Amino acid sequence: MNSAKSFHIYVNGQIDLISFPISYGNKIFLKYEIIYGPEWKLLSGEEQGISQTTTKTNNKGVVLNLPIDFIAKSTTPYGWPQILCKVYCKNWFYTNLIGYSRVHVPIFSSAVKTINAPILQPKFSNFWNNLNWRTPEMKYPEILIEGTQNKGFLMDSYGEVVFQLQTSTRGSSAFEYCWKDNRV
Known about the structure:
- By secondary structure, the protein is mainly β.
- The chain has a single domain (7-175), classed as Immunoglobulin-like, CATH 2.60.40.
- The chain contains one helix and nine strands.
- The strands form two sheets. Strands 3-5-1-9-8 form a five-stranded antiparallel beta sheet, with no helix packed on it. Strands 4-2-6-7 form a four-stranded antiparallel beta sheet, with no helix packed on it.
- A hairpin with a 4-residue loop joins strand 6 and strand 7.
- It starts with 6 loop residues before the first strand and ends in a 14-residue tail after the last strand.
């Protein structure tokens, strides 16, 4: 009997690009945050980050190539890590939120996996609040991760964030977790 206390996941990859149908301006950037459950602990890597400011140069989208690299450990898959992104644009007067995007870290991926995550853009339900032409920003965007508390939100899907992620696990076989063929 193995007395392992936790298993580890290693995640590396990048936020490749942001694509949306129309140009929002010439200064686009992204903030990301890794969110995980209460029994998870980040051992290495950055929990949050921000990209460079870039422009949309072609019809493909805004290229970021923002690296993501972290190691986390847990005793249970409950609260599996997710990446929450906030996409912004800057103009002469203010910084405006384009929307939110989230993705679960792949459970197993011996090769780089491309994931297209939709950008969710919050909407006001009141006509007068729409007159300022700014997208409302959520005070606690982490509730998008849970899924059970966001039934009353009015949101549009507007473009996507493209992730390229690779995941490997270590120690999961001690807990009898079998995720394809990359367990150690």
